[in-house]
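Researcher: We're teaching a course module on how sequence relates to structure. For the next exercise, students receive a sequence and then see the predicted structure as tokens, so they can try to spot secondary structure elements on their own. Here is the exercise chain.
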Amino acid sequence: YVGLPTPKLTIECQDSLGNPLRLFTKRDIRLLGGDGVFSQFVSPWIDILTIQIPAGETTADFYFKTTEGGEVQITARELSGEPGWTDGTLIVTVLPAKAVGFSIETLSSYNIGDAVSINVKATDEYGNLYEGYEGVAALSAETTSNFVPSLLEFGPADQGSKEVNWVNPNYAGAGRVYA
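Model: And here is the predicted structure for the students to work with:
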């Protein structure tokens, strides 16, 4: 889940046939993964950019976390620049956290009195869409407005996002909508 460490991830040095390769000298490995961060331990979490595979070993363990949901490619790159090394990659699927609020999207401008389509999305604490949200959002505005419907019910088929029509009040200026 976003904001939480992955289970332990392991990088393994391998020969050209895919067999584990015990190193004669230590190797520094650069870890890359979108906007995420890495640590050698879950607690205490200390951000790292590289991890070392010691001489005589074949593997090193690390953890990854990010605030963005979705698929993230993690790349491990040997840093010596010696020929023969190939980057290792792994795709990690990061799920959004549970919904803690809603975001509202609409056009930035529209005509007075027009019905405006509003997209209401259930979001986690990092702003990621939570597709598993099931529940109700009550819509309100600072001004006299009509929502169709005013109680927005989310089910499994909605995947955390629903459209609603807002009948804009008959005045000019900024309007605020709340869910």
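Model: If you want an answer key for the exercise: The first strand starts at residue 9 and ends at 12. The two ends are 24 Å apart (CA to CA).
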